[in-house]
Design a protein that fits this description.
Two copies of one chain form a homodimer. The first copy, chain A, is an alpha/beta fold. The first copy, chain A, has three domains: about 1-85 and about 170-185, D-Maltodextrin-Binding Protein, domain 2 (3-Layer(aba) Sandwich); about 85-165, Periplasmic binding protein-like II (D-Maltodextrin-Binding Protein, domain 2, 3-Layer(aba) Sandwich), CATH 3.40.190; about 190-275, ACT domain (Alpha-Beta Plaits, 2-Layer Sandwich). The first copy, chain A, is about 25% helix and about 35% strand. Chain A is built from nine helices and 15 strands. In chain A, the strands form three sheets. In chain A, strands 1, 2, 3, 4, 5 and 11 form a six-stranded mixed sheet that branches. A five-stranded mixed sheet of chain A has the order 8-7-9-6-10.
Chain lengths: ~280, ~280
C-alpha cells in the first residue's frame, strides 16, 4: 500500500486531498506536524510519497513550501485542488454562547476573519493544524473552546458543528502538490495525460531577461498559468521565478524547454504531470 | 503635522518604518488594529496618509494587502525597506526559565520558528500585533509570558529583552508602501526622483499575452523588479498581474506605459515614486 506523508493529522484537509487524488487505490497517510517534518521524512525514506499545499486563492502562495520543495529531492507527480469550507465545532451539547476561545491554524483563522469579527472578546489561539485543534478539544473534553476545521475533522473527532461555511470568501480553493522522491518519480509518469509542468529558474539581472524567456515559451504555444518571483534568501530583492505552464503537445513543450533553458541559470523542472480540473463552488 | 495611519500600535515596525521614511519632518502616527481598519480610515479621511507592509523576504507577498490596495482609492507615494530583527521580551526580572507562553503576530511567530522549536511545550498564542503583545504583558503585569517584538516596542513598554536576534533568517526585510488618497497623491509627486512604479493589469486568456506586455516594457528599457500573478477572487485560477518596474528615463517610462496599456485590460498605475535603497544586513 502506498504511504503518503501529509501535513496535519487524521481528518485534515491534506488527508482529504490525498484521498481525492488516489481515489482508485488504498493509501496509508502518515501525519506530520509541519511541512519541515514532511520534507525531512521524505528525504529519509525515498519510498515515501507526500502531499503539500502550495497555494490558496485567498492566502496566495505558500512561499515556505516553495522553498522546501526547491531544496529537496522531491518531484511533483501530480496536483489536486480542493474547495476549502470551514466549520466551527465544539463538544456535543455546547452552544455558541458557551464558547470563549477559538483554536485553529493561522491561515484558517485568517480565512474566517469576518466571522471572528462577529465574536468580540473571543480569545483566538493559533495551533499547528485545523484537525489537530478539533482533536485537542475532543481528547481534552475542553468545554468553552471551539475549533475551526473541516467537516471531516469535526466528524472524525466526534465534535458537534455549531456553524458551517464560516470562511469569509466562498471562492476558497487550495492547490496541493503530490510529491515523490526523484528516484521514484518515473514510476508515476503518465505521458498520455501529462499537460502541465512546474519550472523554476533564475535570471541574470539584465533588462528584458524574463520577457525573452516568456516570449520563447509563447512561440512554442506554451500557456502560462502562474508566475511568481520568489525572493532568493541571502540575496535580498533578487528573485527566482516559479512558473507553471500547460500545453497540448508534449513535443512542442520539450522544444520550448530546450529553447528557454539557455536564457536562464539554475533551470529546473520541478515536475511534469496532469492538470487537475477546477472544482465546482 | 502629517497624520499617518499605521497597522499596529505605538512601537511597532510600521511606526519605525514611517518615522524612517519621514525622517526630516514631524509626523503623528494613528494606530490601527488591522489593515482593514487602516484602509477604512483612509477611505473616510482623504487627508490621512498610511503605511502598509506589502512583502517580506521570508513570508513573501502579503496578498490581502494587495487586495485592499487595489480596492481602495489609495495611491503609492513611496516605499520604505526595513531590516526586521525580533527580540524575546518579558517583565523585568523574568528569566527564560520563567516563560511558559509566547505571544506575537503570526508572521513574527513563523519568522522565529527555529527559536520556538528550542522551547518545547511552550504555549504559542497568536495576537494582532508584535508591539501589542509587548504592551499587553507590560500593562497586565503578566509574569510567565513573553512577547516576540521589535527592540523599540520592548523599550517603549518597559520590558526586559531576554534574547535578541531570534529570527531564523537574518536576511529578513520588509518592504512597506507609503499611501495617500488619490486626491492628495499629486502633492507628493517628485518627478526628479521618480524611478519606480507599481502596475496592476489583467490579461486576456490568450497564449503569450504576458510575454507581449513584458517584451514591450523591455523595448523601452524598463526593468522588472517584481512580478506576481494574483488570484482574482471570484474567478478561480485566473490571474491579475502585479508588476513593479524601475527606470532611468521618465519619458521612456511614459512611452512604455502607453505602448503596453492597449495589450491589457483593467490597467492601473498604483503609484510612481522613488525607489528605496536596500538596507544593510
Amino acid at each position: 500500500m502506498e504511504q503518503i506523508a501529509i501535513q496535519g493529522i487524521a481528518g485534515c484537509y491534506h488527508e482529504t486531498a490525498a484521498r481525492g487524488y488516489f481515489a482508485d487505490r488504498e493509501i496509508e497517510v502518515l501525519p506530520c506536524l509541519s511541512f519541515d517534518e514532511l520534507f525531512a521524512r521524505m528525504a529519509a525514506d525515498p519510498a515515501l510519497l507526500g502531499i503539500a499545499a502550495i497555494e490558496n486563492t485567498i492566502a496566495g502562495s505558500l512561499l515556505p513550501n516553495h522553498e522546501l520543495l526547491q531544496q529537496s529531492r522531491a518531484r511533483i507527480i501530480g496536483e489536486q485542488k480542493l474547495r476549502i469550507s470551514h466549520v466551527l465545532a465544539a463538544l456535543p451539547g455546547q452552544t455558541p454562547d458557551d464558547i470563549a476561545e477559538v483554536r485553529s491554524h493561522p491561515i484558517a483563522l485568517m480565512q474566517c476573519g469576518d466571522f471572528l469579527k462577529t465574536l468580540p472578546g473571543m480569545k483566538i489561539v493559533e495551533r499547528d493544524d485545523t484537525a489537530g485543534s478539533a482533536r485537542e478539544i475532543a481528547e481534552g473534553r475542553l468545554a468553552g473552546t471551539a475549533a475551526i476545521c473541516g467537516a471531516d475533522a469535526a466528524r472524525l473527532y466526534g465534535l458537534e458543528i455549531l456553524r458551517r461555511g464560516i470562511e469569509t470568501n466562498k471562492h476558497n480553493f487550495t492547490r496541493f502538490l503530490l510529491l515523490a522522491d526523484e528516484r521514484r518519480a518515473a514510476e508515476f509518469a503518465d505521458p498520455a495525460h501529462t499537460d502541465k509542468a512546474s519550472l523554476l529558474f533564475t535570471l541574470p539581472h539584465t533588462r528584458g531577461s524574463l520577457s525573452k524567456v516568456l516570449t520563447v515559451l509563447s512561440f512554442y504555444d506554451i500557456n502560462l498559468t502562474k508566475i511568481q518571483s520568489l525572493p532568493i534568501i541571502g540575496r535580498e530583492w533578487e528573485y527566482r521565478f516559479y512558473v507553471d505552464v500547460t500545453f497540448d503537445d508534449p513535443m512542442r513543450y520539450r522544444q520550448a524547454i530546450d529553447a528557454a533553458r539557455p536564457l536562464t541559470s539554475d533551470f529546473r523542472i520541478l515536475g511534469e504531470y496532469a492538470e487537475c480540473p477546477n472544482p465546482a463552488i
